[in-house]
C-alpha cells in the first residue's frame, strides 16, 4: 500500500475517533440530565434514590454502544473507499 493510501486510512481513523468522541460525550450528557431528572422525581415521591451503578452506568454503556456503531461505519466506509481507490490507480 502506498503512502497516500496509508495517510488516507489514518485520516479516516482520526475522523472516526472524533465522531465517536463527540457522539459519546453528547449522549453521556443527555443521559446524565435524564438520570438527574429521575433522581429528582424519586426524591419528590419519597422513594430512595437510585445509585449511579444501577441508574447511570447502563445509560453510559448504551451511549458507548451507539457511538461505536458510528465509529465502525466510518472506519469500514473509509477503509473500503481507500482500498477501492488505491486499486484503481
Largest sheet features: none
Helix content: over 70%
Topology as a string of helices (H) and strands (E): HHH
Class from helix and strand fractions: mainly alpha
Shape: rod-shaped
How many β strands by DSSP?
0
Measured distance between first and last alpha carbons: 11 Å
Report on this structure.
This protein has 89 residues and is mainly alpha-helical. It is 89% helix and 0% strand. The protein contains 3 helices and no strands. The protein has helices spanning 3-45, 52-55, 57-88. α1 (3-45) packs antiparallel against α3. The model has no long low-confidence stretch (mean pLDDT 93).
Kindly list the characteristics that best describe this protein.
single chain; 89 residues; mainly alpha; 3 helices
Amino acid at each position: 500500500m502506498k503512502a497516500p493510501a496509508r495517510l488516507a486510512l489514518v485520516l479516516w481513523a482520526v475522523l472516526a475517533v472524533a465522531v465517536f468522541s463527540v457522539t459519546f460525550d453528547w449522549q453521556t450528557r443527555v443521559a446524565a440530565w435524564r438520570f438527574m431528572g429521575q433522581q429528582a422525581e424519586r426524591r419528590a415521591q419519597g422513594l430512595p434514590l437510585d445509585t449511579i451503578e444501577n441508574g447511570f452506568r447502563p445509560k453510559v454503556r448504551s451511549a458507548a454502544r451507539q457511538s461505536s456503531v458510528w465509529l465502525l461505519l466510518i472506519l469500514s466506509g473509509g477503509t473500503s473507499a481507500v482500498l477501492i481507490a488505491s486499486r484503481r490507480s
